[in-house]
Write a structure and sequence with these properties.
about 325 residues, alpha/beta, Spore Coat Polysaccharide Biosynthesis Protein SpsA, Chain A, eight-stranded mixed beta sheet, 14 helices, about 15% strand
Length: about 325
Amino acid sequence: MTMSAPPLTVAMSVYNNGRFVGEAIDSILDQSFGDFEFLIVNDGSTDKSGAVIEDRAASDSRIRVIHQENRGFIASLNRMLAEARSPWIARMDGDDISFPERFAKQMAFLEANPDHGVIGCSASLIGPEGEAVTRPPIVRPLTHEGLIENLESGPLINHNAVIYSREAVLAVGAYRPAYRHAEDYDLWLRLSTVTLMANLPEALVAYRLYPDQVSARHVVAQARHAAIAWLAHCERKAGKPDPTEGSETLPALEQLDAIFGKGSAAYVRSRVIDRTLYSPEAIGGEGYEMLIDHIAENGTDPALWRAAARLLKSGRPRKAAGVANALLRAG
């Protein structure tokens, strides 16, 4: 006899999260709302992740494990969307923690608001050992109207804390590989035109911060991809074809004006600078040439001089001098 599908599929992609994945899985198994299947893709991990996952799966029949060669985060997400048996998908990362009432509160919202296809929540911050991290809170809009007002610049929805409609996500084309460092933002933009979205005010997940996590290594690419996602969204809203549809990679900065129109490259460059200006690692690395071009186009600004000072303080004197010289030329 075929078992009926549960209302919720939990989707977790894991790559070398052996240090944290056991705690992440346990936080899902301890949910007060327990009617779910738990899909875990082990995306070619080379650490102990696979063994930890199998250990948990042996003791809970809700877990379904997929071991595969490393295909990347987006491919893993799309595979779980294809494999899921439930109408609702709860995202979870292998290094975070979901608090026990997360699913109960999100599913209750969706039951009470059937016109919504996406529900997120706030997050608290923890360090590598689970210690609380104190930072100014990120205030996310709670209503669809607030999210639409915030759509260009964010913040929008925590990808690691969302429950969304599988049908809606598949209807807009699921995750797109070209946006590999802003796959969630690209998805929210597309979903915003087909369903209502909201956030719960409570922190129902703990987001873990640690030096070698993927999100900390790709700040420049993330900002660039998000800016291009916005340009593509504007094209679609204007009734035009999305130039990035079906692409495996996004166009280079110097191609953007020809594809999206004059000023597009400058817009993307400005978005990247706004996102990375306070990170000497970003502007002293991948974002350096973009910063120099931005100064040449836009002239001096006190914030840019402070960026040069941050570069110097972080032990990057040549990059600091390069920024200072560019500012002097622009002035």
